[in-house]
Each structure stands twice: as structure tokens, then as C-alpha cells.
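Hi W.,

Here's what went into the run:
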Amino acid sequence: MSERGRPGDIGGTAPRPPAGGARLLLSRLRSLMADTAPEPQRLKRVVELTANTMVADVCSIYMRHEDSSLGLIATEGLSQEAVGRTRLAENEGLVGLVSSTARPLRLTDAFSHPRFSYRPETGEDPFHSFLGVPILRSGRVLGVVVLQNRTERAYDDEEVEALQTIAMVLAELVAAEAEAQSANGRSSRPIELEGRVLNEGVAMGPAHLYDPVVPPARLFASDPEVEERRLNRALEALRQSIDAMLSRAGPVLFGESRDVLETYRLFAHDPSWEARLREAVRSGLSAEAAVDRVRREHRARLASARDNLMRERLHDLEDLENRLLRQLAGLDGDERRALPKGSVLVASRIGPAELLEYRDAGLAGIVLEEAGAGSHAAIVARAMGIVAIGAVEGAVTRAEDGDLIIVDGENSVVNIRPGPELVQSCVSRIALSDEKLAELSKLRDKPARTLDGQDMELFINAGLSFDLNHLDDVGAKGVGLFRTEFQFMTAERMPGIEDQAAFYRAAIDRASDRPVVFRTIDLGGDKIAPFMGRSEREENPALGWRALRLALDHPYFFRRQLRSLIRAAGGRTLRVMFPMVATVEEFEAARSLLDDELEWAVKFDRELPQKLQVGAMVETPSLAFSIPALARRADFISVGTNDLMQFFFAADRDNTRVSARYDLLSRPALRLLAKLRDDAAAADLPVTVCGEAAGRPLEVVGLMALGYRRLSMQAGRVAPIKQLVRSIDISQIEPVLRELIAQPGPTTRPELLRIIQAQGVRI
Ligand code: PEP
Ligand code: MG
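Here's what came out:
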């Protein structure tokens, strides 16, 4: 077994024989649940029943409130006076500890624990032993259920398991109680959450949770043996589907991808995981509820896990459990749910490949809990032209499938279940932005020329076939960056030479006489193709084995792509560039593989491109300082500011905590960009900027003032940028910016803004 470990390592306690007590308890709980008494009474009966069955002096339930404090809502054994009165702050006491870690806690002597907090009103003085279990639902901690005993009692694994099962049943009751206590009930309360804009605009639509945690339809089994058989069948089907994935995996692009799938298979066959599921079924839960119970624990622990490796393992397990639930529901393991057009996708995190699966789904918006503006998920969202907001904490747990959501990419907020006024204003804003778009489209055939007569060339970034339709819509000069990895990321199997060539050929045809610059595959890091499996997590994926590094280590696959490109461009101009080049030698190595492929084409009498241009993406500071040497070998360069800035500032573009901290318009970054452009000009090397900065107005002013004249951006940005270009006098800004960056000081952003505002430009 690889270091990824076995599920049992994090799955909790060792398997136990089926608990007769737990089964009895469950059957009593079942009749309680069927009871129609009001919630507080039912909760009271649950605590009585639990205390009796589990021979505890105390059983209490604490409910977590919106502010994360924990209120006592039912107890057997503590003073009834304390119910509704005792409220523990977030993290206060042992109950707070269970809630914040989302894990069970058992102590023989609670008093000696440093987190013990004494509440006189509860009368809990004489209780020594403590067992607390989180009440989890949809990955959220709803509260805590606690057992206490006077004696110093050591609760055993079986008791912890039994209390966890009770907590699962309680989750439904506590959720109902929480709704009853909130004024309008949870599902109708409007909520506003802040985030970071990944793609501008305003959109509204029903929420579609990417990975919803649906409470099982049935909690209890009428016949545990039947449930066990259902579980067995589902497990078998799950294993078969994983075996099928394994057999589909070849040819293997990555050394370890097979390892990863193998590891995945081991997870599915892990006896301790299976035993936990089986035990839950034998205790009287339905098969779905049993899987759900085990999954809740993993999900909650995932929320608090910091360690990357641990997170990956928990994700693996959760993924397996989700697949198993789909099997039980009779759905094919890989099937994505259908969603109505105009939906808003809500996810905690999503990889670019998974997001691409939604390319034809007609999404209106995307809301992500993770992902920074420079992340590839954000880039895919922009490529798909969908309004998106990232870093929206709590979106997944607050929104429910079908809730109306406004994705306000102008004010960086997400409104869940907005009130009628907000909806009305959103409708008018959407209409307004449609009008604005119509206005901008009039610029399509106008030149991108500044007031002082400087011509700019504006290209689009593409990667999906429908991107190319935008070439005409926005009147772009061509495709400045064609991300070829998108084809790989959306393919179940490695695309063959003819598949690749057909795709590239279609792009060249579609662009007709306009240039298309193909960037060779930039996979690795967070960009993983389905047929690769998920690669072993590297410590620093952005700095790791990705893009050209990976391609050079796999010349067989790389040469297939180069061969496809040559084939596609027969008789026409082929423009190719390599991503993440760190040294001139790497560029030369890639270029010589391209030469080999050209020779191969000559030898086999294939039609050659009529002209060839080979460039490098400047995405590493080391290459930015190698321009004179590079110019002797390359025909052009393209500055990938997304990666270049992440490496320059040592700030992960995918990590929302650091990605927005540094500014491309700060002096050190502009000095680097100025040197880069001056070195390129001195060597007569054409240069384009194709990172996201090329589509941001103030950054564009900065880049133009440094002398950059070719920009490649998301299609949706071309018209607004053209409008900006046409309204400024760049000759006035150039000397000011050059002078600013020659001096020490903070970001030039306010200065640039002031200058263009003085020119009457609003951005
Ligand atoms: C970049 O890094 O700026 C770039 C354009 O490449 P990608 O965003 O695809 O990494
Ligand atoms: Mg890049």
C-alpha cells in the first residue's frame, strides 16, 4: 500500500461485532421518529431513552447556533432549568471541542481536561466521565450529543459507535428544531455571502449543488439482512466500476496514475471500511443511512483537516462513499445529474476538468468556496463565459438544491434566497448589462487605436471549440493562446493523433486567415485529465512536475501532440509555443523534438506546414531574465502573467489567502515586465501578454504604457478593452509610469487611475 494509506487509518475505530444494544436502541428511536409529538418533546424522549439504554447518568443535546455558540436544548440528568439557558461560546469547554473538531471525545476524568468548563446552573459537578459526539448533517456540525457518568467510566468503541448512530438520527430532529427556532425557517432565509470575483457580470438562477449531500430517504432498515445484501451488491458494483476505470486507464501518461487508481481500488476493498459499513447496517440502519453515517464523519473531518495528504485521503474516501450512494440509488457511478438551463453551480472546490464537464449545461453562474481568481477553475469559468465568484465561505452548506441564487460579480457577493426587491434589481441589472454588451458589439469592426494613434492587437484565449465562434463576435485579431490541454481534460481516453489533429485543424479552419497560437499541453498541477486518474499530490504542484517538464519526460506523448499539430497545419502556418519554460535549454530540447517530427513528416512524405513559428511562454522569472539568449532560438514570446506573477511573488495563484495580496501594478512587478518587454524589443522578438492581466483595464493601461502592443484575453474582455484603448492617450502615460517605477514606492495603481480619470476615462 502506498503512503496514501488505508481508509481504516482515518476511518476511526476498528471493526466491532454487531451491537445488539445499538440495534435495540435504533428500533426504539425508530418508533420515536414516527411519533408526531412536537420536537422538544421528542428530543426529551431521545435523551431519556439514550441515557437508559446506554446506562448513562446524563444524556444532553447541544445545538449549534448561527454564531457557532452551543445551546443546551435537551437533557436527562442535568438540571432542567439549564435547558434553553446554558449557552457555550464557540470552542468553549469539552462540548465546544467536539463541535470544533467534529470528532468524538471520550474521557474518564473530564475535570482534569484543560478544556473542561464548569457551568454551575447545569449541576454537573459530580460527573466524571464524558463522551461527546458531533451531530453532523450535510458535512456541518449541527450540535453535540453528550453522555456523562458519575463514576470514572471508560466508554468503549461500541458505545462510541452507538452514540454516533444516535447522533445521525438526532441530526434530523435537531435540523427541524433549528428551523423551528429561526424566524422564517432555514430554507427561506435570505443570506448574503462575500467572495472574490472570478468572472465579472451578474447572473441569477436556481442552485445546483455540485456534490450535494442528500440525507438518505430511509434511515432505518425494516430487515437488516435485506439491507446487508443491498450493501453487498452495491459494494460489488462499485468495485467493478473501479476495475473498469483501471482497465480504461491505459495508455498511461503518468507513471503514477496507475498507482493512484490502484490505491483507489484498495480503498474500495479495505476490510475496515467495509466492516464499518456493515456494522452500521447490522445495527438497523438502511444501507444508504449506513454509508451516509460513515461519510458524515469523513466529511466533517475533511472540513477541519489541514494536512494536504490527509485531505486527499478523506476526499478519496468521500468520493468512494458518494459513488456507493449512487450505486444504492441505482444510478451509474459516473453519472452527472441533469440540471435545468440557467442554473448556478455551487461547489466547495472543483477542478478545471470537472468544470469543463458542464460546458454544454447552459450554466448561468458559478459559486465556489475555494479557488482564487488565477486558478484554472476560474480560467475555465471565463472561457465558458460564465459569471463566477470564488472564496465564498459556507456557500455549500447554506444553499440547497433549487434555491434561487444571485451571483453578483460586480459587488463580489452571492445572495442565496434573495428577497423580491433584490430579485427585481438583479433583473434590471442583467437587462442593463445586455444593453451594454449590445453597445460594445458596435466596436467590433473598429480598430483598437489609442487617441494618439498607437495600434493595439487584441487576440482571444481559447481552448474549447465554441471559443472560436467569438473570434468574429468580438472582432479579434486571432487566437493568442490556444490551451490545448482542454481537449485532454475533457476526454475520457487519451486523444489519438487523428483526434488531436482534427481538433487543431478545425481551429485553424475556423480562424481562416487569422493566426492561432497553439500552446502544447500544460497538464499537471491542478490540470488533470480524466484518463490520468488523479496524480499523486505533490508538495508544491505549481512548482512541480507539470507542463513542459512533464512533456519532455514523456517524449512519446509529446511527439504525438507535435505530430498532430504538424498534420493539422499542412500547407498553412503552424504557430506553436511551449508552456512553463524555465531555461533556454528546455526550449531547445522541445524545439528539437519538433524538428524530429518535421523530419519524420518529410521522411514519410507528409504535407508540411508552409511556415513554422515557435515561441515560448514566459512564465518563470528565470526565463524572463534570459530573453537575449532565447531570442536566438525562438520566433516569439508570450508572457503568461498568471504563472509569472505567482512565481515572482512566491504566491500560489490557487490559494485565496495569498493570491490577491500582490499587485502586477506594483513597482517590482512592473520593473520585471518593463525589462522583459525592452529586452524583447532590443532582440526584435515579438511579444504578447496572454495572462488574465491582459483583460483587466488598469493592468492593460500599465502594460501599454510599458510598450506592450499585443494582448490576448478571454473573448468577453475584448470589447471593453478595445473601448478603453480607444479612449486613452498612451503617450501621456508612458513617461509617467517609467518614472514611477524608477523610484521606490507602493503600487502604481492609484497613480494610473488618477491619470486616466484625468483623461476622462472611467473603469
Ligand atoms: C499564464 O500562466 O498566464 C497562462 C496564460 O497560462 P495558464 O493560466 O493556462 O497557466
Ligand atoms: Mg501558465
